[in-house]
Design a protein that fits this description.
Blueprint lengths: L2 H18 L7 H37 L6 H11 L9 H33 L7 H20 L8 H49 L5
Length: about 210
């Protein structure tokens, strides 16, 4: 391990331990690490935004390619910053309206083709030839129909409708639980990675100078 790599490992290990110190209680070391992380992330985001968006899409197209139509969206982008100026803040509403409307118009077809239509296709698919395939299709039908009835508020949820609505609630809770469990596992994976870094790169290599 070179001197530069060693310094990097020690800095990374120190910042990791600063973050872990919050387990004990909120303290100055944790706040320093938190602020440093946010500051570096913001600086990195600003630099990448300039070189990946502003420079090729604004500066290069106007100054080099002489495509002056880019001035209009560039001005709308500047209007968003006018949110910080109370007297000119109303101009930012134009930019936000176009941003939200354009994003919605672009996203809705993608969601329909990427999520809604495949869901309908799976729901209306014919029953399979094997018992597991039939059970899987029945569960899909029950889940979709019961969840739709759960969100159908024009009919009072009593008796049969109430029972189906209750079943839809169970399907929703299972779905939310699976999503939450997947999120927790992703965070646990990051935690395991930090522990492996502290043990392998820091303790074994940087401190004990062991190879392997």
């Amino acid at each position: 391990m070179s001197f530069g790599e060693g310094v990097g490992v020690w800095v990374a290990a120190g910042l990791t331990l600063m973050m872990f110190s919050f387990i004990y209680r909120d303290n100055a070391l944790f706040k320093f690490g938190e602020h440093l992380y946010l500051g570096i992330s913001l600086g990195y985001f600003m630099v990448t935004t300039y070189w990946q968006s502003l420079y090729p899409d604004v500066y290069r197209r106007i100054g080099i390619d002489h495509n002056y139509w880019v001035i209009l969206p560039a001005l709308l982008g500047l209007f968003i910053l006018l949110r910080l100026v109370p007297s000119l803040g109303w101009l930012s509403r134009w930019a936000f309206a176009l941003l939200v409307g354009g994003t919605a118009g672009f996203s809705i077809p993608s969601v329909i083709h990427g999520q809604l239509l495949p869901q309908l296709s799976k729901t209306m698919a014919p029953f399979g030839a094997t018992a597991p395939a039939v059970i899987n299709q029945v569960l899909i039908l029950l889940g979709v129909l019961s969840v739709l009835i759960f969100f159908f508020f024009s009919v009072e949820h009593k008796k049969f409708v109430g029972g189906v609505s209750r079943l839809g609630l169970y399907f929703l809770m299972i779905s939310f639980g699976a999503s939450f469990g997947n999120t927790v596992m992703a965070r646990v994976s990051l935690l395991i990675g930090r522990f492996q870094f502290l043990w392998s790169d820091w303790i074994l290599h940087a401190i004990l100078h062991k190879q392997g």
